[in-house]
C-alpha cells in the first residue's frame, strides 16, 4: 500500500509558502474565514486587489486600445435561461466525477489521468503521456465512462489520501449553479449563475456591431465573474467556484478561422511573455478532446509549482453559438458583408460569423504572476566581523503591476524630515499608488516593501533639506540612486507605465 502521508515535495512546499505569503501580506484571504471559511472561495486583500486590477487593466488596454477593431461590453451575470439551453450548458456542461470509497474524497476523473500523464512526461516518457491523453480524449468524446474508470484502474492510479484504488463508477456532474427569480412566471423561475462570460457577448453581437458600427472582422471584450460548482476545487485560487474571466470573442468570415486562430494564439503568448512570464515556463497544449462548439482549441499553460496548467484558452468556436441563439430565439444573427469575394467578384452577402475566442482566467493569471514574482535569494550584509549571510524574500513584480509604486520614508521622525516627506507624498499621490511610513528602522521598512513588491523606496534625509535630493532604493538590486525631487514623477512614471509592457507586444 502507498504511504498515505508522503513527504512534502519541493513543489507543494513552495506553493504553501506562496499561499502563506499571500495571506500575511494582504494579497488573498480565505473567504469568511472567521466562520472557518468556504471551500474554494477567496477574497482579495488590499495588495491583492491592486495587483489583480492592474492585470485586468493591462489586459483591457492590450485588447481595446491596441486593437482598433476590438470594443468592450459589461454584460449582466443573470441571463434568460434559454441562453444556457442554446449554448449547450443545460444538457452537457458536466465533468466526469469519481470517488474513492476509503478516503471518501471526490476527484475529477480526467484530472487524475492528466496528472498521471504529467508524471510520465516529467519522467521523460512523453510518448506514453501523449498516448494516455489521446485514449482519455477518445473515451470522453464517446462518453464511455466505464472505459474512463477502467483506464484509471489500468494505470494503477491511487487516491493520494488513502493510497488505495478502491474507486466508484465514474458519473457526470453538472457544474452550473441555479437560483430562483420571482419576476419570471410559470415554470421558468429557474435561472443560472453564468458559468462563462462568453454568452453575454454572443447575445449582444448585433447590438454591438450596429451601435459601434463594427465591420467583420472585429472583437468584443469583457471582464466579469463566472461561477462553476467544481467537483474538486484545489491548488489555492487556481480552481475556484467563483472566479473572474477576461474574454474576447473575435467575429470573422467563415473560412478564415484558422488564420485568425493561429494569429491570436501567437499574439496571446507574446502578451504573457511581455507580462514577465518566462518563455521557458510557458507552453501550448492542444486539446485532445474538443468541446462541442470547437474545431480547434489550444491552452497556454504556465509552469506553476504544481506543474504546467492552463492560464488561457484559444478556441475556434465556428458559428455554433450564434447559430444556436438564432435557432432558439428565432432572431437572425447574421452579418451583411459587402466586401467582394475575389473568386466570384460579388459581395460575400449575409452569413453567420465564425468566432475565435481568447479566454484568460484572471485569478489564474494572478496566481501565475505571484508564483513568478515570489523570489528567495541569499544575500550578504555588513563587512568584516559583522558580515552575515541571510535569505531575502521579495516579490519581483514588474513595476507596472506592483500594488504600490513607491514608498516615502523620512529617515527620522524629527528635524522637519516628516514634513518634507509628506510634501513629496502629497505631490506624487495624484499620479501613483504610494505609501508613507515613518515607523521602525529604515532597513525594516525596506524589507516590508520588498515583501509586497514595491519597486521604489524614497528616503528623505537631512541632505534633502539642503539640496532637495532624495535617495531612491531599487527593490531588485537594492542599489540606491540620488536624484532631485523634481525628477521623481518622471522617473517613477516611466518605470511603472503600462507602456513598458505593451511596447513589447
UniProtKB/TrEMBL annotation:
Family to which this protein belongs: Belongs to the class-II aminoacyl-tRNA synthetase family.
Aminoacyl-transfer RNA synthetases class-II family profile domain boundaries: 17-403
Function: Catalyzes the attachment of glycine to tRNA(Gly).
Protein name: Glycine--tRNA ligase
Annotated compartments: Cytoplasm
Binding sites annotated in the UniProt record for substrate: 108, 196, 243-247, 357-361
Keywords: Aminoacyl-tRNA synthetase, ATP-binding, Cytoplasm, Ligase, Nucleotide-binding, Protein biosynthesis
GO BP: any one term: glycyl-tRNA aminoacylation
One Pfam family it belongs to: tRNA-synt_2b
CDD domains linked to this entry: GlyRS-like_core
Domain of life: Bacteria
UniProt cross-references to InterPro entries, sorted A to Z: aa-tRNA-synt_IIb (IPR002314), aa-tRNA-synth_II (IPR006195), aa-tRNA-synth_II/BPL/LPL (IPR045864), Anticodon-bd (IPR004154), Anticodon-bd_dom_sf (IPR036621), Gly-tRNA_synthase/POLG2 (IPR027031), Gly_tRNA_ligase_bac (IPR022961), GlyRS-like_core (IPR033731)
Organism name: Hymenobacter jejuensis
Lineage: Bacteria, Pseudomonadati, Bacteroidota, Cytophagia, Cytophagales
Subunit structure: Homodimer.
Annotated coiled-coil segments of the chain: none
GO cellular component: cytoplasm; extracellular exosome; microvesicle
GO molecular function term, any single one: bis(5'-nucleosyl)-tetraphosphatase (asymmetrical) activity
Catalytic activity: tRNA(Gly) + glycine + ATP = glycyl-tRNA(Gly) + AMP + diphosphate
PANTHER family membership: DNA POLYMERASE SUBUNIT GAMMA-2, MITOCHONDRIAL, GLYCYL-TRNA SYNTHETASE/DNA POLYMERASE SUBUNIT GAMMA-2
Enzyme Commission code(s) on record: 6.1.1.14
Amino acid at each position: 500500500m502507498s504511504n498515505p502521508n508522503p513527504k512534502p515535495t519541493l513543489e507543494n512546499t513552495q506553493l504553501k509558502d506562496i499561499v502563506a505569503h499571500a495571506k500575511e501580506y494582504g494579497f488573498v484571504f480565505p473567504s469568511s474565514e472567521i466562520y472557518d471559511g468556504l471551500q474554494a472561495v477567496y477574497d482579495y486583500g488590499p495588495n491583492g486587489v491592486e495587483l489583480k486590477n492592474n492585470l485586468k487593466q493591462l489586459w483591457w488596454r492590450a485588447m481595446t486600445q491596441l486593437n482598433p477593431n476590438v470594443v468592450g461590453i459589461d454584460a449582466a451575470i443573470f441571463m434568460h435561461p434559454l441562453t444556457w439551453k442554446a449554448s449547450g450548458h443545460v444538457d452537457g456542461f458536466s465533468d466526469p466525477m469519481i470517488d474513492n470509497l476509503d478516503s471518501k474524497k471526490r476527484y475529477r476523473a480526467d484530472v487524475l489521468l492528466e496528472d498521471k500523464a504529467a508524471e510520465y512526461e516529467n519522467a521523460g516518457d512523453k510518448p506514453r503521456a501523449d498516448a494516455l491523453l489521446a485514449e482519455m480524449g477518445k473515451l470522453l468524446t464517446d462518453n464511455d465512462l466505464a472505459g474512463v474508470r477502467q483506464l484509471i484502474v489500468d494505470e494503477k492510479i491511487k487516491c493520494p489520501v488513502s493510497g488505495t484504488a478502491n474507486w466508484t463508477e465514474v458519473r457526470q456532474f453538472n457544474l452550473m449553479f441555479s437560483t430562483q427569480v420571482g419576476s419570471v412566471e410559470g415554470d421558468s423561475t429557474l435561472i443560472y449563475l453564468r458559468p462563462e462570460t462568453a454568452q453575454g457577448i454572443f447575445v449582444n453581437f448585433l447590438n454591438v456591431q450596429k451601435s459601434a458600427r463594427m465591420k467583420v472582422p472585429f472583437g468584443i471584450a469583457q471582464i466579469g465573474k463566472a461561477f462553476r460548482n467544481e467537483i474538486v476545487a484545489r491548488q489555492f485560487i487556481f480552481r475556484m467556484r467563483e472566479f473572474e474571466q477576461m474574454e474576447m470573442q473575435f467575429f470573422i468570415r467563415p473560412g478564415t478561422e484558422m488564420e485568425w486562430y493561429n494569429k491570436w494564439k501567437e499574439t496571446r503568448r507574446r502578451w504573457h511573455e511581455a507580462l514577465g512570464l518566462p518563455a521557458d515556463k510557458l507552453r501550448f497544449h492542444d486539446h485532445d478532446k474538443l468541446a462541442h462548439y470547437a474545431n480547434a482549441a489550444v491552452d497556454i499553460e504556465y509552469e506553476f509549482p504544481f506543474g504546467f496548467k492552463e492560464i488561457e484558452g484559444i478556441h475556434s468556436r465556428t458559428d455554433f453559438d450564434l447559430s444556436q441563439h438564432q435557432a432558439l430565439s428565432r432572431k437572425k444573427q447574421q452579418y451583411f458583408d459587402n466586401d467582394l469575394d475575389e473568386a466570384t467578384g460579388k459581395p460575400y452577402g449575409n452569413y453567420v460569423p465564425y468566432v475565435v475566442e481568447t479566454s484568460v482566467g484572471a485569478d489564474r493569471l494572478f496566481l501565475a504572476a505571484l508564483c513568478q514574482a515570489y523570489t528567495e535569494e541569499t544575500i550578504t550584509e555588513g563587512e568584516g566581523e559583522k558580515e552575515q549571510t541571510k535569505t531575502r524574500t521579495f516579490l519581483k513584480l514588474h513595476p507596472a503591476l506592483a500594488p504600490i509604486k513607491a514608498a516615502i520614508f523620512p529617515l527620522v521622525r524629527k528635524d522637519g524630515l516628516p514634513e518634507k516627506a509628506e510634501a513629496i507624498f502629497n505631490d506624487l499621490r495624484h499620479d501613483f499608488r504610494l505609501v508613507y511610513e515613518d515607523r521602525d528602522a529604515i532597513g525594516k521598512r525596506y524589507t516590508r516593501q520588498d515583501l509586497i513588491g514595491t519597486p521604489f523606496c524614497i528616503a528623505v534625509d537631512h541632505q534633502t533639506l539642503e539640496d532637495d535630493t532624495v535617495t531612491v532604493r531599487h527593490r531588485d538590486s537594492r542599489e540606491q540612486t540620488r536624484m532631485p525631487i523634481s525628477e521623481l514623477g518622471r522617473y517613477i512614471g516611466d518605470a511603472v507605465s503600462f507602456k513598458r509592457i505593451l511596447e513589447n507586444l
